Structure formats: C-alpha cells, structure tokens
Amino acid sequence: MPLMTKMRDNMPAILIGLVVAFVIMIIFEWGMDFGGMRGAQQNVLGKVNDREITYQEFSDILRNVTEMQRQQFGGEIDEQFMGFIREQVWDNLVNELLLEEEIRRRGIRVTDDEIVDWVFGDNPPEFLRQQFTDEEGNFDRAAYDMALSDPRNRAQVMQLEEMLRQQRKQERLQSLLMSSIRVTEGEIRQHFKEQNVRMDVQYVTLDPNRIVSPEEAAVTDEEIQRYYNANPHKFKSPPQRNLAYVTFPFVPSAGDTNDAVREIEYYQQRLEEGDDFLELVENYSHTPFADAFFKPGELSPEKERVVFGNEPGDMIGPVIDDDGAHLIKIIDTRAGREEFIRAQHILLRFDEESDSAEVWQKADELLEQLQDGADFAEFAREYSADPGSGQLGGDLGWFGRGRMVPPFEQSAFGARVGEIVGPVESQFGLHIIKVNDRTNREVKFATIHQPIEVSPFTRNEIFDAASDFSYVANQRDFYEEADYFGIEIQETGFFSENGVIPGVGQSESVMRFAFNNRRGRISDVLEVSNGYGVFKIVNVQREGVKPLDEVRSQIRADLEREKRREKAHERAQEMYNQLQGRSLADITEIDPALEIRTASDIGINSNVPGVGRDAKFIGAAFGINPGEISKPVEGSRNIYLIEVTRRTEFDEERYAEQYDNIKDELLETKRQQFFMQWLEGLREEATIVDNRYMFYR
To answer: Cα(288)–Cα(296) distance, rounded to whole angstroms?
Structure first.
C-alpha cells in the first residue's frame, strides 16, 4: 500500500469516544499549553474563543505528528500531504480546545486519588496494558509495576497521569452528554426486520414525464414571478472572488540535472571497478528491470535513439529523458514479426485563405529542394504546419502499420531508407516524407534510473523568485511587473468559498487569502499544486440574490417538474382508489399501457430492478402487509404503487438472540451521530480565527 494511502487511512480523527489518545498524547506529552500563558509573546497563529494558539505551539505539535508518521510508515511526506496533515492537526486541536472549555464550563474535575487508583489498580488503562504483555499476550503485571515504580520514569509517569486525567474528564463529559440517549424496543425490532426479513413485490411505475403532457405541466410567467418573490433564499448568490495570478512551477534546475548525472557517473565508476550491472539496477535504480523485449514506438524518443541504435552488451549514458537520467545497457535483441519505420515529414495544410494549386506548387518546390540536398529538419521547422513534429525537425519517431492515415502509411512504407517522397495528400493536407530507418528489431535492455528531482536548494530559489515578484508587485503594479519578468498572468474567474478554485484546484491558503482580504490585495507567496503562486484579488462579489432573468429557466424547470409530480400523484391516487379490494394485477384494466414488474427476495439494501436503491420504495414495501397495495409512493424519480406478494416470517427466536447486539449497535450509532452534531454545534457557536495562511506557504 502506498505511503500516502496508509497515512490517510490512519490519520487520527475525533469520534464518539471523545478520547483520542493520539491527540491527547500530543497535547500533554509535547507541551500544548491549555493555560495559554506560555508563548504569549509569540505570533498568534489562531484563536478558539479566548484561547490563543501560537505558531510555536502549533508547529511543535505538527513537527512531532509528522515525525510519528515517518517512524510508523517510513519514507518522506510530500508537500501536498503535508497540507493534509496540517488540516487534521488543526481540526483535532480546535476540537480538543472546545472540549476542554466545555469541561471547565461544566465544572468537571478528576482527583489525584482517582488517577492513582486507576493506574495502580487491578484494571489499569487498556492502552497501558497493551505495552506490558508477555509472549502469550497476557498482561505482565510485574513488569508493569516495575516500570511505574522506577524513579527514572517519574517524569513520564507524571505526564501519563495528566493525560489520563484529561481522558477521564472527557469520559465524564461523554456520560453527561449521552445520559439521555435511548434505543426503543420498536427501533430494535424494526432494525432486525429490515436486516432479516425478505419479501417479493410487484409494482407499477408512473413516470411523470410520460403520463403528464407538456400542456398540463405548463408554467406561466406569473407563476415564476410569484415563486421567485416567495423564495429569495433559494436564489442566494454566495460571496465570490476573481483572482489574477502567476505561478512559479517546481522545475528542476541545471544543478538538479547535474546531480542526477553525477549519480549516474558514480555508477559508471562502480561498473568499471567490477560491479554487476543488474545488481546495481536491483539495488539502486528507481525503475526495476523489465525482463521483456520492446518494440519501436513503445519507448520515449530519447531512449529509442540509443536502444535501437546499439548492440547487446553496449552501455550508453548518461541519457537524459523526461523521467530522469539513465545508464542503459543492451541485454539482448531479436527479430520481431512487425516492421517499423522512422520518418520525418513536412505538412502543408489547405485552408480557406490559400489556393489549393498554390499549396501543391509550394509542396513541389520544397520536394525538389529537399531532393537536391536541402536540410529536411530545417525546412520542417520553417514550413511544417504540424505543431507536434514541426519544432522537432519533422521527426515522427518510430511507428508501425495502422498508426498513420492510409495514404501516408502507404507512401512511407513503400519508400526506401533515405528516400524523400511526396507530396502525399491526406485529410490533413500535403505531406513530404523522408524515411530514415526501417527495422523489425526488438530489444531487451536494463537501466539504472536516477530521477531528476527538485532539490530543496532549487525549491528555495523558486520561492525567492516568487517572493521577489510578490514584493515588487506590491510596490508597483502586478500586471506591469509580470510583463516585465515575462511571466504569464492567468485568471481564475469567479468562484465561491466552498468550491474549487478554477485553474488552481483545492488550496486552503489561497481560499483564505481570497476571502479574508479586500479587492486589489496582492498575496504573499502561496503554495499551489507543484509550485508557488502569487495572487491578486481582481473582483469581489458580495452575497446577494441572483436576478430573476438569471434563474428564470431554473425556476421554470423546477415548477414544471413539480406540476408533473403532482399530476402523476393525483392519477396514482385515483388508481389506488379504484384498486381497493382488488389486486395490483388489475391495474391494466384501468390503464392497459402500464406494465406490472416484479422483484424477488428484497431486503432493506436490495437493488430493485428498474428502481435502484430507493429508500422510499423499500420503506413503503416494508410498511405494508402481504396482499396489501401501498398508497402512491413518491420515489426519488417516479411514483409507484406496490403490492407485497410474499414476506418471510419474523423469527422471534433469532430476534431474541440478536437483541443485545442490535441494541448496542443502534445505541453506538445514535451516540456517534449525536456527538458529531453536538461538536459541530460547538464549532459553529465558537469564534475560531485561523491565521495559518500567514505562516504556511
């Protein structure tokens, strides 16, 4: 499992138990100061009600959490995931501070004697017990007592006591919060029924879009106006921002490339001293040895130039490719079944402004000059209309049959190596083609691969360049400075606070800057995906109500949809009334166009054919008796009439066996839901100031 995935799956979060030992340990073992006095002279990174959080406090916690992750999972943490860790630490810290404040407000206390009795008593905390188990997994009481009584562990024991005190306080807060939560007999019985009872049903679907005519669903302008006037809350326009920005991407420097090349040269030296090539590949290459033969067209152009131009045993390098530096050794070659050619071409297009005869004449002139010895690559760069290959001197690399359009392929594969042919007409225009090589060769090779990575030094240089731009843009003019430095300015367009920033993606720091500052403000350097950015707030759109003309079509569609559902429901109700004392199968006498469908062995989570997992459909089916027809059921898309034709009996004996487990499961679920809602309420009522964007780029 990749490092990032493992870390994300194991990132701590506060759940129903109120006690997250990981976070509590961070706070008490690594020095979070709930009194708020230490560090009062330091910069304030955030605030939870009256409790300030200093940059030093937060960074200490973050550093230790990061180190714990590295120790647990190994490897380094990239910048993107570092941002995720910061978010988790911040959220957990805010929650802990709110819980601590609530504990103080309610006057919850835990005495020293209680903690001592818990630690030294017969039933010590579970996470401590787990640290003192013998080979058979049994609690080693003697080792536990010895560790606690060792004077050298006194400081750790005192920290442990404080951590456990906080845990006990939160447990008492939990008891107070959860004391009123109950699970009724009816809820337990219904849950068992939903999980264990199965049934067969037949049903009829009434699609509002089919059974209601456009005339019946027509909406007038007056109705649209009334709906708009009565529901302004539905058409709120959230605050939006529009940013101009420049980016400074993380691009390896020449020094980074040289570092990778020196690494390759080091391995060349090792080989000269007698090391085995494949052993070096296995131990040091970032690309494992692929024990396979490659055809032309399956590798990058840089690799193909050396791989297909050398013989078994040849060693070539350093080779610089898009993915890094390589030292390549040809292992073996063989003749394949397919033929490949390598060619260049020059493309002249027909367009509305040019006369086709002139294009043909130009092609003939170029062909004559090329056949007389003119430089093909130079002509391709000057005349070719193919943007992909033109700047590469017309080079198309290796290709086999079926890759090119038929006229081009026929001419290319019919030419000799070194021959220039054309003009060849295709749907793209006129081609002049030079065949440079032809082969059916397949090659097996190994590579010692060293990626060219952006070094910390280069990253700092990029940050310094972005900082310089931010400074001068603030002193002078954002647009003029970007033009002076030759940096492209991009614009996000309008976006809301809870959305994605167009062109940038998700970035908490950019979002906070955009919505916490005034129009015209230029940001400090902010980290974005694979680089740094400097942003300017171009436009600020405040919260308001969208004009009617902007939402008219939306309202019309909504009202038409509602009218269709109302009409469909009325017809379903008429059919239901006519079916009283009869079977659902008789509905075809009322409307022969309706189709009766069946579904067998349905449970609470079943996917009903033609319906899907529709909770309203399933709920209605569970709510009626066999042989009974439901009242019209408004599902997520359609209206239904349902009849249960068979249902399994309620197993009282099995219900009694599962009763306690179901009760515990439902109670735990209720507690989790209640706590998360309660905690979210605390956060909504609290004054939370988040200034992290000022400290983390």
So the answer is: 20
10 Å Cβ neighbour count for 346? 31
Instruction: Kindly give, in sequence order, each residue whose CB lies less than 8 Å from that of residue 223, ignoring residues fewer than 6 positions away.
Output: 559
Sign of the Cα torsion 277, 278, 279, 285 reads: positive
CA distance 656 to 651: 9
Was domain 200-212+549-647 assigned CATH 3.10.50? yes
Q: Which CATH number fits domain 239-250+455-542: 3.40.50.2000, 3.10.50.40, 3.30.230.10, 1.10.10.10?
A: 3.10.50.40
Q: pLDDT means per 10 residues in the chain (697 residues)?
A: 32 28 38 36 80 88 84 69 85 92 91 85 82 81 83 80 86 88 91 88 93 92 94 90 95 92 92 92 88 87 85 91 91 90 90 77 91 91 87 87 89 92 89 91 92 88 92 93 92 89 88 92 89 94 90 94 94 94 91 92 87 90 91 92 91 92 93 91 90 72
Among residues 422, 349, 337, the alpha carbon closest in space to that of 386 is found at 349
DSSP letter string, 388-412: TTGGGTTEEEEEETTSS-HHHHHHH
CB-based burial label for 24 (10 Å; 0-12, 13-18, 19+): buried
CATH of 255-450, one of 3.10.20.740, 3.30.70.3460, 3.10.50.40, 3.40.50.1980: 3.10.50.40
Q: Which backbone phi and psi does 564 adopt, to 5 degrees?
A: -60, -45
Strand order in the sheet with 639-647: 596-602, 199-206, 639-647, 633-634
Q: Which helix (H) or strand (E) holds 52?
A: strand 51-54
Distance CA 191, CA 200 (A): 19
